[in-house]
Amino acid sequence: FKFKESASPEAIRKVEEAFRDLKNKIPQIVAYEAGTNVSPEKLNHGFTHCFILTFKSAEDRDAYLVHPDHKAFGRLLGPILEDVFVIDFWAK
What's the pLDDT band for 69 if we cut at 50, 70, 90? Predict the structure, then answer.
């Protein structure tokens, strides 16, 4: 995520907590990882937060996408989000 400059640390903290809590609300999420950029290369293009969710199948991922708690999270995030980069992949 890249947050708006106007996003307060408190608002960002609430987003972090809400994203972490999705694992407790959406059974299709197998694992959750998160962190902030610590790269010295300065190639993050303003993106500061990374979140990785693990699903067992594409069907589970699709169920997450339309889940009401995921939609509610999006409404919390939207006002302070400047940009998002999403990539889906299957680990090899």
Answer: very high
